[in-house]
Amino acid sequence: MHLCYMGKKFLPLENASLPVTDLIIQRGVGVFDSIATHNRRPIRLTAHLERLERSALESGIRPPLTIEEMRSLALEGIDKMEMEYEVVIKPYITGGDSFDHSTGSFPSPRFFMIFQSVKKPFPESYQKGVSLHPIDTERIMPHAKTINYMISFTAQAEDLDSFEILYCPRGEITEASHSSFFLVRDGILVTAPLEKVLQGTTRELVMLLARENGISLEERCPSLSEIPYSQEAFLTGSIKEILPVVKIGEQNIGTGKPGPVTRKLREIYLDNIHRWLE
Questions:
Q1: CATH superfamily of 123-276
Q2: How far apart are CA 237 and CA 204, in angstroms?
């Protein structure tokens, strides 16, 4: 059974509902996050909730619950999930029913939290790698994890074989629609700086592990023009972890197969994941 915490109680997900007056429905005003478990313990739960709070505040929404209150609800919800497989927790903060023009904020937000089973990419995606569809657009409000994912669906319709879209404004690669992006060129990891992208929680772990294991790192936007001279690429995310990318648009990356740096980082990540369980 999948669950939802809403209105100060846990209930079956199919019984949860929001008023049609909420601006998350009428105008797409809302923020959220996704937190996966490992051995039924959430990975970097506090960091995710801190990002949710930052996303809400940047959007003019004051979170109705504290981080500690949300953390307690997340742990309680995991315990209530009557299943052996892993869980994904998705907390949402909505815009509520009104916008205060005098303060530029949303004074009556709502909070709810969804608990579902984790659906990871298919195993062959890790074995063979995935392709991305580049678009000459940047994500709206890149520092906030808002619910506005419309372009990630409409643009992907242009390439139905792609795993995600890849934001490439003016040829600069920033991030994918649901993931952080890393390029590997001459053994160096290249990823966009935080001024341009969402602060990915798994991105941070990969960067930490790279430094701990002597892998060089550059924080800059790689460019589409670098693809022919690069050997590997991968995505990072809470659920997908580290997923190899072998093609961007019509261009293969390296040999067109997952490479050794990506495999090594994935192994190191899985060996160290216990460090970030809460």
A1: D-amino Acid Aminotransferase, subunit A, domain 2 (3.20.10.10)
A2: 10
